[in-house]
Amino acid sequence: MPINVLLVEDQKLIRVGLKSLFGRQDDIEVTSEAQTGKEAVEKFKTAHPDVVVMDIGLPDISGIEATKRILEINNKAKVIILTSHLSEQEVMDALHAGACAYAMKDISTDILKMVIKTVVDGAMWLDPQVVPILREKNCGVIPPRQMSRAMFKEQHANLTQREYEVLKLVVDGLSNNEIAQELTISEHTAKAHVCNIIQKLVVDDRTQAAVKALKEGLV
Asked: If one looks up domain 149-215 in CATH, what number appears?
């Protein structure tokens, strides 16, 4: 069974493009569309989609308000914010509203497909550009947990000290090249450390590793 998507986007060109994109997929299908926030809420009631892909800037109510209303209807709804907006306030408001992913519109096709599947599986996904905002302005979206170094070693003994240092830089949004420069190591070595971290934390990519590190108080 394909994943059914409700696509909420007021710009016809983008909406048609995304629908065409998913039309070529066997496992993801746009089964309903909306051009406004209010229409999105009504469509959600009747279409019962697996995932809502939601823009923020809509003609009536915002995508954030529409997300709130959808979550009031079904608190298990999966809403992905897909936007060109990256203001601190909108990121925080969207996550507080209940969105389980925040992605920028320059996202690649393959990653967007991965994000949809990730949220359907019950996980959260954040664009790498969003992670530093959350880390600096964590207002309860990701509950902080203080963890002593002893507790860290007890719970994550298989993560080396160097990998822990790399993880902190991943959370800060640094690329492999930037991590290499920061730690005076080769980019190949930095990439290897990131791959090891992803494997040891049992996540799919560096963004999920950063989110898990924030959630569990590892950094």
From this structure: 1.10.10.10
Q: Which stretches in the chain have pLDDT values below 50?
A: 139-153, 157
pTM: 0.66
Q: Are 167 and 200 in contact (CB under 8 A)?
A: no
Tell me the two tokens of residue 179: 């991590």
| Domain spanning 3-127: CATH superfamily | Response regulator (3.40.50.2300)
Q: What is the pLDDT of residues 143-154, one digit of tens each?
A: 443 444 444 445
Side-chain-facing half-sphere of 77: CA atoms under 13 Å = 28
Contact yes or no for 32/6 (Cβ under 8 A): yes
SS (HEC) of 174-190: CCHHHHHHHHCCCHHHH
Instruction: Identify which of 44, 39, 88, 82 has the alpha carbon closest to the alpha carbon of residue 60.
Output: 39
> What confidence score (pLDDT) does residue 89 get?
87
Distances in whole angstroms, Cα of residue 134 to Cα of each of 24, 60, 95, 127, 182: 34, 28, 10, 11, 22
pLDDT at 69: 96
